Amino acid sequence: MKRFEDLTEAETLALAIANEEEDSRIYATFAMRLRGDFPATAAVFDGMAAEEDGHRRSLLSLYEEKFGRELPLITRQDVRGFLRRNPVWLAEELRIEQVRRQAAVMELEAGEFYARAAERARDTDVRRLLGDLALIERKHEAVAERLEKTHLTESAKASESSTARRLLVLQVVQPALAGLIDGSVSTLAPIFAAAFATQSTHETFLVGLAASVGAGISMGLTEAMSDDGAITGRGRPWIRGLACGLATAIGGLGHALPYLIPDFWTATAVAGIVVVVELLAIAWIRWRYMETPFGAALVQIVLGGLLVLLAGIFIGSG
Description:
Shape: elongated
Pfam family, one: Rubrerythrin
Transmembrane segments: 167-193, 205-226, 238-258, 264-285, 297-316
Protein name: Rubrerythrin
Order of helices and strands: HHHHHHHHHHH
Number of domains: 2
Keywords: Membrane, Transmembrane, Transmembrane helix
Largest sheet: none
Domain Rubrerythrin diiron-binding: 11-147
Structural class: mainly alpha
């Protein structure tokens, strides 16, 4: 790798051209990947890609004027001091917040590069263009704001917010809610059956721990293998599986942990209170994210939970 200080003016301009071409293509890729779900933000990145392409043409014209039509091959990977970029544009799922952070880092780095290059330039035309580009890159935040005002209208922002919420529900809330319901409800029977059969808090806790961890692993694997998300838009399988598995385990552990209390009836009373809290939380999540009327969600969840709880107590008491 070459040091930045050892680059000739021709190499510096060639590097600037390569950087602008790379940045333009990255912004165009962002626009292409975001267009389906976030069309207004995609239009912003289309504008930024066009800006970078305009810089590239200006640099090419100056290079041809000063050094001819043969352009040396030199890229940011060949020069020390550049940040190693995390290729977020290659990710299967492109998160809009991550994209905007990446764009901000790119503009900051470009501004610093042009400022340093302008300081070293001896040719007045080269120094002038590089200095102008340094100012432009440093003002790109304002350019982005102008493009956002043009494309990100209030209705567009509302639409994108709705899309982001829909993706959150599909990729995280739905699998986590399924896991929480399974963990909270399905483990009621084995835990309370063990509790009333043995009246031993230690043994009941071990049963609850095994049931919760086993259910978490089972539900996580089931969710992860259900589909790859390519057609349904439900996101990466391992993220859904992790959300579902953790929520399942947490749902079961909620009413297993009280049996760490040595006194059986105290532990059982605390576990009962935890069950009520869990069922209320599930009803609230269904109302908040799944647009289920809270009353209907409460009746469905509480009724189902009580039936499973009573079944466990009945079996354990027998």
